[in-house]
Amino acid sequence: MKFNIQDRIVLDEMVDTFTKEMNKNYDKMTDTSRRPIITREYWLQMIEEVQNKIDSFTTKKALNQSNKYR
User: Fold this and answer.
1) Are 2 and 55 in contact, with CB atoms under 8 Å apart?
2) Which residues, in sequence order, are CB contacts of 58 under 8 Å at separation 6+?
3) Both ends of the chain: CA-CA distance in Å?
4) What whole-number distance in Å separates Cα of residue 53 and Cα of residue 21?
5) Whole-structure pTM value
6) What are phi and psi of 49, to 5 degrees?
7) pLDDT (tens digit, 9 = 90+) per residue, 17-32?
């Protein structure tokens, strides 16, 4: 099964929202001098890996559309 354009819009929004919230929470923790258990670099690496997996299961048309608007 491949993700179509509608699927890809939802998945892109989900990944973007997760990334935004992760950065916000990470900044909040560092501002209060708390040490996060998982580093930001590790989260970003995992997000990139998930994005690559999503890309591999996306139709070419949907992937082109996603790259055009992100």
Assistant:
1) no
2) 2, 3, 7, 8, 66
3) 23
4) 21
5) 0.83
6) -65, -45
7) 999 999 999 999 989 9
